[in-house]
Amino acid sequence: MSKTIIIYGSTTGNTEIISEEIKKGLEKGGKDVTIKNVINADINELSNYDLILLGCSTWGLGELQDDFQPFYGEMAVEHFKGKNVAVFGTGDSDMYPDTFCEAVKILEDKLKECEAEIIADSFTVDGDTENFQNAAEAWGLKLAKMI
Ligand SMILES: Cc1cc2nc3c(=O)[nH]c(=O)nc-3n(C[C@H](O)[C@H](O)[C@H](O)COP(=O)(O)O)c2cc1C
User: Fold this and answer.
1) Which of 14, 57, 61 to mutate to test the pocket of ligand 1 (most atoms within 8 A of CB)?
2) pLDDT tens for each residue of 36-85
3) Does the predicted TM-score (pTM) go above 0.70?
4) Where are the alpha helices (DSSP H) in the chain?
5) What is the 96 CA–ligand 1 centroid distance (Å)?
6) CATH number, residue 64
7) β-strands 63-64, 58-59: how paired?
8) Domain span including residue 51
């Protein structure tokens, strides 16, 4: 069975909740899914997976969530070249319209540098939205059907 890993960084739990919903969608699509907080993730384990999803909220003014910084610093071609990847994240479009979900763009730019295959548009959502579950699960299912 095709193996997927979701690695997320989340300070107040919003991106963690989204990650669980995306996992449900992937599993409905027949994927074997491992989910890890980025603080427990090892960049060298990525080679074991067919699809890598990175999820990160945006903090500061358009910055990566704190826990994601060390992982980001390690990201290199050797880990991502030719790998199927996609990125998701939460933000706040009312309070931070100019930097809404900027962390997702930062990660996508890095993945392009690392020669990864970004297989789908990112999934971004306001962290305090109540009904994101269906959309997050649907995004996971869509990805499952793509690889
Ligand atoms: C101090 C602070 C700075 C933030 N900066 C941004 C930002 O620049 N862009 C954005 O889209 N959201 C920003 N947010 C909103 C968070 O990204 C949002 O609440 C998110 O859902 C948090 O997810 P997490 O609980 O997974 O960390 C900020 C929130 C706080 C409290």
Assistant:
1) 57
2) 999 999 999 999 999 999 999 999 999 999 999 999 999 999 999 999 99
3) yes
4) 14-28, 68-74, 77-80, 102-113, 132-146
5) 8
6) 3.40.50.360
7) antiparallel
8) 3-146
